[in-house]
Amino acid sequence: MILDRRALIGTGLPVLGAAASGLVLTAAPTIARAAPLPPAEGDMVLGSPKAKVQVVEYASLSCTHCAHWNNEVFSVFKTRFIDTGKVRYVFREFLTEPTQFAAAGYLLARRVGPARYFQVIDAVFKQQAAIFESQDLWGGLLKIGKSFGLTEEQFTAALQDKAGLDAINARVDKAAERDKVQFTPTFFVNGQRYEGGLPIETFAGAIAKAAQTKPGKG
Fold first, then answer.
1. How far is CA 40 from CA 36, 45, 93, 147, in A?
2. Measured between alpha carbons, how far is residue 87 from residues 49, 123, 207 in Å?
3. Per-residue pLDDT tens digits for 128-158
4. CA–CA separation, 77 vs 169, rounded Å?
5. Cα(126)–Cα(107) distance, rounded to whole angstroms?
6. Percent helix / strand / coil, the chain, rounded to 5
7. Which Pfam families match (predicted)?
């Protein structure tokens, strides 16, 4: 599966930065830090800043496990925890193979703009399987771009945004170094790591525990 030569590949842009494999481990918490992760450049956020619990998700638009979690779990997660003010949700972009597709999807979402960023992410995840099956990655993303009002020329320009691509690479490199992210999806619930697409009740337990834990306590 490749993007059309007009897009990210073949434009002279640098090779995409550090990327994990699409492998996802069974969810297994590490030692609790019981403190939210500090803000990072490029964070996209939903929920009240007053929420007691911060959930950070590192995800890749080309990761099938991330797509499954988005398509099957996220809407319930949002209704139960974000919309009720219990959780402040932070989405952080990561890259897995095919990295070009993931990066292109993020460039598209940022071109559409912050107000509809999560709508674009949701659209890519929901159409990911069909796009991969068609092997027309360019055409699949172009269709999504047009559904958000972009012309083909605007879409092409978005995917050829060298500064935007460099920024994505920098964020991914920092994530790998700072938070030791290797797999997607990776979640941090008030700083405690969970790897894999967790079921909603696992999140419910982790969120309840985090809400009752004082900062600095394990």
1. 12, 11, 11, 30
2. 9, 23, 8
3. 999 999 999 999 999 999 999 999 999 999 9
4. 28
5. 17
6. 45, 15, 40
7. Thioredoxin_4 (PF13462)
CA atoms of 36 and 45, how far apart (whole Å): 13
Residues in the chain with pLDDT values less than 70: 1-34, 214-218
Peptide bond into 98 cis (omega under 30): yes
E strand spans, 28-177: 44-46, 53-59, 87-93
Query: How many CB atoms within 10 Å of residue 112?
Result: 23
Domains of the chain with CATH codes: 44-72+83-183 (3.40.30.10)
The interaxial angle of helices 137-147 and 117-134, nearest 10 deg, is 150
Distance CA 118, CA 162 (A): 22
